[in-house]
Specification:
The structure is a homodimer.
Chain A: H1 2-11, H2 15-31, H3 40-58, H4 63-76, H5 81-91, H6 96-103, H7 109-115, H8 119-130, H9 134-139, H10 143-146, H11 152-170, H12 172-184, H13 188-202, H14 209-227, H15 240-257, H16 265-276, H17 282-308, H18 316-329, H19 334-351, H20 353-360, H21 366-379, H22 385-389, H23 392-413, H24 416-427, H25 433-446, H26 454-471, H27 476-489, H28 499-506, H29 512-540
Helix pairs in contact in A: 2-3, 3-4, 3-23, 4-23, 7-8, 11-14, 11-21, 11-23, 11-28, 12-14, 12-18, 13-14, 13-15, 13-17, 14-15, 14-28, 15-17, 15-27, 15-28, 16-26, 16-27, 17-29, 19-21, 24-26, 25-26, 25-27, 26-27
């Protein structure tokens, strides 16, 4: 047995050191004096969140496992207890006063009914009062921490993995990929630009960047990798790494370019309207983004090509072989036609939100459409049901993304995010004008490291930064433009920033450290394009 | 393509007929006039729930897919919209009046802060007011329908599947199974009684019947099946079907026997105390259950043996071979010792809730302990992480059980359950006394067909039936005993009644129709034991 143990250690000698490092970071923050203005609870959530993010970088254990450990710590220590109890009481319209009345002995079950009509509720309230350990029970409750596993964004990502499975199963991914390579694939660089072109064409019509990047483009990019003989384990640097990075980062550029390029972009417009009285509509959005956006689309494929140096540069020879393969594939099969048809319907449903609102009075939920697509694929026998339950990549993502979203929610509900925003606001007080706007935008950009969702980042910070802009007298239109575009571009920083990034990263072509490093380089490129060319363009437009 | 399609149809000619049958049931109920006292919303939820249950019986498609379709219908038609919006407003302490004030033009963002301190909340409230389509957006929201995927019971079941994977991976399951067969496995019937004995020993100490049946016993039962050469696909009737049914049904009997045999049993005690002033504590519980309980434990293994007629009756020859195999296994490996150690710690943590409450002021959540165990298994390298993400059975269960729990919640939140209980109450009004108690108990028993959780069933109905007991002048102690024991025994009816049943069913040894049929036979046995022997015993105790 002792031998077995030493074998285990030998396999990965630094595993325990790296695990210890994560634990030390967590413990150090946990016991660090709580900054003023912050509850102990919020600080503890942050400590666990930070340790989890560190574990993503050091990777002592699979990400999903690190997230689970974080959730166990938060729920086991009762860190998320108070807010859970408060929610519970608030849900029932109860406050301290009514509780104290109810806890008096004269309160009879009949009286309780007044506060809550159903018998079950009455039982629960009685428990609250009579059972002194209720609060402690809630403390131990995992409910709050498991909530992320029922999140709609998480399930959109899971559905995207399933759809991608259908692309592979049916051979449609391979067919489309072969067609793209046959037409545009003279060089690997050419394929990078092909992705940019496809993204640019789709972005105005598919407001979910996850549906666009993760559901539609990723399966094609992944199939091209297969055709080029670039395997995630065996030969990631042959071409796959480059194309995957192009897919992820170009998706963010096109998300930034259109008001309808990302689902949460309208939230920025609304905040701009509410706080700065700036009407930043579809036309304004594209007017400001067209020049720096096109520049980014031109720059990124080339720059990533220089950074990643794919081994396969001239895809010319491959291209000839591929034309032959395409011929060998023969006619479209039932599965390929059905897959294409279902994708087309999904595309139409995703792209026609405005029409739906006009016809039905409401838009169909992006995740709803995606799950419908998955169900249709299984019913039409394009994708067997056991390819859903057996899709490890999808379930791995459910574990780590779902858990992380629960933690991010806890950061929000414990008001850590509000506190952080206030810190930013007060620390920047001295500088004013354009420089202040730029500093605010930079902080906004890099604060994305602490977020697991572009939408969450926008919801948490966009309005706060607009308020700060007033305080530091930044030019309103400039501020709105910076926050609007950076809201999406900042997703380049991490591998957990938004759906498509998560999905592209999940393909396994790029090791996590390299993803962060290249992401950082891309962030510098974005800043040079949008802060130099962008500022010039916006000056020309008279926005500052 | 036409050929392909016809091939698909040929494969399973009745698939579409069976699918159509489910759809017809759903549509017929949907458009049926809503019974008085019920909202249209509640009725629609019931229609979808009923169609889903019918689909479990007809199986036109995998269960997970049928549940997903149900969720898509409920969220796509906006059936769960009103309650979602109401929840949203209530969460924020808003009512019609304050909303109407806020919607007036003079309400400024600063005013809104009064109602909700954070900026994000303010934005959301503004949206509620200004964006007329908010209600429609909520209608389309999937959130309510995906909530089940973050449910703690669902994740306890998922964790039990993972732990079972560890039992298999480490070889511990095989070792324990070999040991049990070597000692007790002279006959297949003997193994049935071995399961009964193990359940009886464990039940007082492990209050979660899912942890006991699904986490601990199922992996052993499944490993015995392997040793006996009974495969779920190839040879289910050799012995596996019998042992799986023993595992599931005996778990429910021991759950019924002890106040601490099932997590929700204390809820019955509490309701009895609150409504009927009956103090049904640990001692009273076992006093009433000991005679009929032991009779059931004696009867069920034998009766199931006669019903299922396992092909392997005399396990004697196998037993000799198995003793040899046990020898061949050699010494305990690192993985087996670690697995046993982790299981032991989990067992102690599950069994010592009272001590934990005394020491820590709170019990550890059963699911929390289970997930801790899973994490420990992966860290100790007993179970590779990719055996979690690749555990199809676990994820299949997440899909169908999570979805079903969301539907059951919707039945509850739309007050369908309350309405149903009132129907029962009013329809039984004529009969009184012992006979009324028995009728009530029978209705309580078979109403389990509509529930996906014993706990949900108890929460929904136990109190209602106690109230009804007063109305029909049923003997209080008798009523409490019947409801207490039937709360668990009634789980025999379906394959979706409670965690361990779900898990045993998930092994795939018993086709769904057969599960229902045998479950119905077992329900008749339970009724004859507990209503004949039980009533006599309780008369002797002076309970009626």
């Amino acid at each position: 047995m002792a031998e077995e143990t030493s074998t285990v250690v030998k396999e990965d000698p630094l595993k325990w050191v790296r695990l210890a490092a994560c634990v030390v970071v967590g413990l150090a923050l946990w016991y660090w004096p709580t900054p003023s203005g912050l509850s102990l609870e919020a600080w503890h959530v942050f400590a666990v969140f930070a340790a989890t993010i560190v574990s993503f970088l050091l990777r002592p254990l699979p990400m999903g496992l690190c997230v689970l450990i974080g959730l166990l710590v938060l729920s086991g220590t009762g860190t998320t207890a108070t807010s859970a109890l408060d929610d519970w009481l608030e849900d029932r319209g109860l406050n301290e006063e009514s509780l104290s009345y109810l806890s008096r002995s004269e309160a009879q079950p009949e009286t309780l009914v007044e506060y809550s009509p159903s018998y079950n509720e009455t039982i629960k309230i009685r428990e609250t009062i009579t059972d002194k350990t209720f609060k402690e029970k809630v403390q131990q409750s995992l409910s709050a921490m498991l909530r992320g596993f029922g999140d709609t964004t998480v399930w959109l990502v899971v559905a995207a993995f399933f759809i991608s499975g259908g692309m592979l199963e049916s051979g449609l991914g391979r067919r489309v990929a072969l067609m793209m390579v046959a037409k545009l694939g003279k060089t690997t660089l050419g394929l990078g630009y092909a992705i940019a072109a496809a993204e640019l064409l789709l972005a105005p019509f598919i407001p979910s960047n996850t549906a666009r990047g993760g559901g539609l483009m990723m399966p094609i990019v992944n199939a091209i990798n297969g055709v080029l003989g670039s395997d995630a384990r065996e030969s990631p640097r042959r071409a796959g790494e480059y194309l995957v990075l192009c897919g992820a980062h170009l998706n963010l550029v096109t998300a930034a370019m259109f008001l309808t390029g990302m689902a949460a972009n309208p939230l920025v417009s609304k905040a701009a309207d509410d706080i700065l009285n700036v009407n930043f509509d579809w036309g304004m959005w594209i007017k400001g983004s067209i020049v720096p956006g096109l520049a980014s689309l031109a720059l990124i494929p080339w720059a990533l090509y220089r950074i990643t140096k794919p081994e396969l540069t001239d895809a010319h020879e491959a291209q000839d072989a591929i034309r032959g393969e395409l011929k060998d594939m023969g006619d479209w099969t039932y599965e390929q036609v059905t897959m294409a048809g279902i994708l087309l319907v999904m595309l139409v449903l995703w792209a026609t939100g405005a029409v739906q609102e006009w016809l039905l009075g409401a838009k169909l939920h992006t995740t709803w459409v995606a799950i419908c697509g998955v169900v249709a694929l299984v019913i039409c026998k394009v994708l067997p049901y056991d390819k859903l339950t057996g899709n490890s990549a999808a379930w791995d993502t459910l574990l780590w993304l779902g858990g992380l979203i629960a933690m991010a929610d806890a950061l929000k509900s414990t008001h850590f995010v509000d506190w952080f925003a206030n810190q930013v606001k007060s620390s920047i007080g001295d500088t004013t004008g354009v420089l202040a706007a730029i500093i605010l935008a930079l902080v906004y950009f890099y604060s994305m490291y602490a977020f697991s969702m572009l939408t969450g980042h926008i919801l948490a910070f966009a309005g706060v930064f607009f308020s700060a802009a007033i305080a530091v007298e930044a030019p309103p239109l400039l501020m709105v433009a910076l926050i609007a575009y950076f809201s999406n571009l900042c997703g380049c920083t991490t591998n957990y920033s938004t759906g498509p990034v998560v999905i592209y990263y999940g393909l396994g072509y790029v090791p996590i450290k390299r993803w962060f490093w290249i992401g950082f380089l891309v962030s510098l490129m974005h800043l040079s394009v949008w802060l130099v060319l962008g500022l010039m363009w916006w000056k020309l437009l008279g926005w500052w």
